[in-house]
Design goal:
The structure is a single chain. With 227 residues, the chain is of the alpha+beta class. The protein contains six helices and 17 strands. The chain has two domains: 176 residues, Jelly Rolls (Sandwich), CATH 2.60.120; 42 residues, DNA Excision Repair, Uvrb, Chain A (Irregular), CATH 4.10.860. The strands form four sheets. Strands 1, 2, 4, 5, 6, 10, 14 and 17 form an eight-stranded antiparallel β-sheet that branches. The relative contact order is 0.18. It binds nickel (II) ion (NI).
């Protein structure tokens, strides 16, 4: 299931992120591709240490943790530090699956990748092509969002970025190890939380049905969470 969240960053914030990105060194993206990805990955990535030093990684993580709908959908336990990529004309990342387990940079810790996120930093009218295509059980879904919007999708999905034919596509991407590994359980918890949030807008905080449903939500999370 794909979940999109709009306006995680405002246009001014996106502009500031883009300005900071322009000052970083960029490398061939092939350096961080897996053995299969190497043949199909043609893009550039911002230097990871420089991005962290510039505060961009923390800026994004802080915002995600403060975005209730993102937290509810991902139920994050650990984040892989956000990376940044850019695709110019002719650049693409052919069909691939992201690695299931990744070593957290600068540590000996391994994390499981349950979910992938792409945060779009270029507006759709800045480029042609560059569509994120995600293979889901309901068929291929095409994703091209406004700058500042993000998409969350299962890291197990086959996916690709189609060739850019005009302009440039800049984005941030990263992985999440969720407290709830099972996708169906996580999606059901998200649906329940969305329904509770909708009720919260209509009913007083001490409403007994609301309290009962909140209890059910947390007890289900307690059953499914491993962290
Ligand atoms: Ni990927």
């Amino acid at each position: 299931m794909l979940i999109t969240i709009e306006k995680v960053f405002s246009p001014d914030e996106v502009a500031a992120l883009r300005e900071a990105l322009e000052r970083l060194p960029w490398h061939d993206g092939v350096a961080t591709a897996g053995s299969l990805g190497r043949a199909v990955k043609h893009n550039r990535q911002a230097d990871e240490e420089a991005a962290a030093r510039a505060g961009l990684v923390d800026d994004i993580l802080r915002r995600l943790r403060a975005t209730p709908r993102y937290v509810s959908a991902a139920l994050p336990n650990r984040f892989y530090p956000p990376r940044f990529n850019r695709y110019g004309v002719g650049e693409t990342y052919g069909a691939h699956v992201d690695g299931a387990v990744m070593r957290l940079p600068g540590t000996d810790s391994l994390m499981r990748t349950d979910l992938s996120t792409t945060l779009f930093l270029s507006a759709p009218d800045e480029y042609d092509g560059g569509v994120l295509e995600v293979d889901t059980r309901f068929g291929v879904q095409e994703v091209k969002l406004d700058a500042g919007d993000l998409v969350l999708y299962p890291a197990s999905s086959l996916h690709q970025v189609t060739p850019v034919t005009r302009g440039e596509r800049i984005a941030s991407f990263f992985w999440i190890e969720s407290m709830v590994r099972d996708t169906d359980a996580r999606v059901t918890l998200f649906d329940l939380d969305e329904a509770i949030q909708a009720l919260t807008r209509e009913r007083p905080p001490a409403d007994p049905i609301l309290l009962a449903l909140s209890g059910v939500y947390h007890n289900l999370l307690r059953i499914h969470a491993s962290c």
